[in-house]
Amino acid sequence: MKSQSATTGSPARAPQMTVRLSSTSRGARLARRLTGQQLADWGFPYDSAVSQAVTAVVAELAANAVTHGRVADRDVRLGIRLGRDTVRVEVTDTRPDRMPPIAPGRPDADAESGRGLLLVAAYADRWGCETRTVGTKTAWVEVDLAGRGCTS
User: For residue 64, is pLDDT > 60?
Assistant: First the structure.
């Protein structure tokens, strides 16, 4: 882990966390753990529906970033923002040439991989991937709090 910032924010600014992690399996595991901790700090217990959905999404996006978006000596950035009605997750890597499919297909029943984006699509209320700056792409997910035991 190279840098981390977390803010609880004032009413004018949404609570958010941004962290740069190594583009390794250790970095992907740390992304999931830090997400669970940050959500707990924001009042969403580890076993809550919100925490389970968001940490599952982060685990998958971070794993994809270090597996398919890895460039040697370049970090992955994880951003989480708590809005009034939504938790938004962004995972940025350095391979904009390798965009994920918007409509993930179903893998063969005996395939050992290929289900991650199906999991993301199942938990996400909205998701996508975009290039924002030269040399990076950001996969983003929004998980609505309503319907997961939360009210605005």
Answer: yes
Q: Indicate the DSSP class of residue 120.
A: H
pLDDT tens, position by position, 77-89: 999 999 999 999 9
Contact 71, 95 (CB under 8 A): yes
Q: 62, 21 in Cβ contact below 8 A?
A: yes
Separation of alpha carbons 3 and 128, rounded Å: 25
pLDDT digits (tens, 9 = 90+) for 29-56: 999 999 999 999 999 999 999 999 999 9
Rounded to whole angstroms, the Cα distance separating 87 from 106 reads 27
Contact 53, 111 (CB under 8 A): no
d(CA 41, CA 27): 21
User: Under a CB-based contact definition with an 8 Å cutoff, are residues 51 and 150 in contact?
Assistant: no
Amino acid code (one letter) for 143: V
Q: What share of the chain is helix, strand, coil (3-state, %, to 5)?
A: 30, 25, 45
Q: Can you tell me the distance from the alpha carbon of 109 to that of 8, in angstroms, rounded to the nearest whole number? A: 44
